[in-house]
Every structure is written in C-alpha cells, then in structure tokens.
Amino acid sequence: MWHASTDKKLVLSGKLKELFLEGVYEALNDWFLEGDIAIEDDEDGLSYVQYSQPYEGLSNREKLWGVAEVTRCLATKCRTPPLLQWNESVVYAVFETIAAEISVEIDNERHGEAEEEYRFHWRKLASEAQRELIEYDEPEEYIDPKSDDHKEWERVVTEELAGTILWDDDFLECNAKIVCDNSPERAEMLKYLGGIPDDYYSTPVPHVTDEMLRKAKRFLKKTFNELYGSRK
Q1: What span, in angstroms and rounded, lies between the C-alpha atoms of 142 and 152?
Q2: How does pLDDT run across 71-115, given as a tens digit for each residue?
Q3: Number of other CB atoms surrounding residue 147 within 10 Å
Q4: Measured distance CA(214)–CA(62) in Å, rounded
Q5: Averaged pLDDT of the chain
Q6: Band (46; pLDDT cuts 50, 70, 90)
Q7: Contacts for 152 with CB less than 8 Å, ≥ 6 apart
Q8: End-to-end Cα spacing for the chain
Q9: What is the pLDDT of residue 225?
Q10: Are 186 and 198 spatial neighbours (Cβ–Cβ below 8 Å)?
Q11: What are phi and psi of 2, to 5 degrees?
Q12: What helix, strand, coil percent values describe the chain, rounded to 5?
C-alpha cells in the first residue's frame, strides 16, 4: 500500500497497475532480471531514458532494489512506507520510462518501423489508465491513443497519471535545493509550509546488501512471471 495523493492507502489496480508494471519491467530491462548476475555500480542501465535526479544519481543496486520496493508497496497490501525523497523519485522514474517508451513508439510509427501489434501499445495503455482515473466533462478532453504529440503524452504520463500517486514534485533535485540550500530555520519553515516531513530529504536509500538484492530480484521475477508468463 502507498500513501498516495488520491487515497490514504492506495493499492494499484486496473489499467494504472498494468501500465505501471509494464513501466517497471522496461525500467529494469531483461538485463537486470535474467539469471543470478551481480549488479555493479559501473554497469549501464537503460541509457536512452533521461531520468531526473535524485533517481539518476542512485547506484544500479539502489535502483534495482528501490524499484522492487516501491512496486511491492504499490502493488500489494503490505505496510505503507513513509514518503521520502528517494522512494518518490523511484516512482517518478517509472513514469519517465513510460513516457520515453511512448516517445519511441511514436518515432517508430513515423518512420514506418513499428510492428503492427505494438503500434499503439503504450499509448493505448496510458490512455485507458487516464480514462479510468481522470474525470473530464467531455470525451475530447481525453488524449487520443493514436496521438503523436510527444509533449502532450509526457504531460499526461508524468503529470496526470504520476499525480494520482505522487502528491507533488518536492522530490526533484531542483525543488529540494530550494529547501535544503536555505538556512536551517528557513528550511524548517519551508518544509512546514509544504507539508514535507522532517526526514524527507535526509533519509537515504538503505544500504543494499546482497541478500536484499536477491530478494528484490526474486520478487520481481515472480511478479512478472505471474503477469506475463511466457510473453516476457
């Protein structure tokens, strides 16, 4: 469960859950999930996605464990974790992955390189999630699943859909600096006015041990095997 902006204790369901888990899979890539390989800090991840800080600055071990942890909290009825800069940035990174996949999908279609079965795969998932979650008065206010507007898709995914989970964007490094680069007194005032917990910025990702990494990989493999079977 997750203390989300739309619900005190959210467990993902419906099209948003399907979309989010697809995004998790692509964020981690087969490279992370196959076999019993070690995750080293100097190994490359999914380099074509321009992730925001602080997620981009995490080690690969922290990224893998962090994505597994937020997925477990969002997709199962486990304990609700405290909202912290690092775990909200991990959630946002999944939506950044989804936005990047949609961008690639649009470009592939424009260049005639899209497989017919997957021409609108990501856009269809995202548009269906939007229709389940966002209440508009008129049908034309929802994004067309065949739209090729990069900026509009980025807005829908990283603002509207991500916003059903995330309260705001205090986790972004640029916004964190506004608070943390001030005097302690002013920083405390800004956190109070913004409803930001005292330990939000100061709590780091836990030290990821080998055992934590093995458990994270087991959870992710089990999740994707149950969802996709042989398709993935």
Answers
A1: 11
A2: 999 999 888 999 999 999 999 999 999 999 999 999 998 877 767
A3: 15
A4: 12
A5: 88
A6: very low
A7: 143
A8: 26
A9: 84
A10: no
A11: -140, 140
A12: 60, 0, 40
The pLDDT of residue 47 is 53
> Which pair of structure tokens corresponds to residue 92?
């946002």
Q: How far apart are CA 186 and CA 209, in angstroms?
A: 36
Q: Is 2 helix (H, G, I), strand (E, B) or coil?
A: strand
- Do residues 70 and 90 lie in contact, with contact meaning Cβ atoms separated by under 8 Å? yes
Please state, in angstroms and rounded to a whole number, the distance separating the CA atoms of residues 176 and 170: 6
pLDDT cut 70: percent of the chain above it: 89
Please identify which residue in the block is written with the tokens 């974790």. Answer: 81
Say what the pTM is: 0.90
Cβ within 8 Å of residue 137, ≥6 positions away: none
Q: Which neighbouring-strand residues pair with 95?
A: none
Residues 117, 149, 53, CA angle at the centre, nearest 5°?
95
| % the chain with pLDDT above 90 | 66
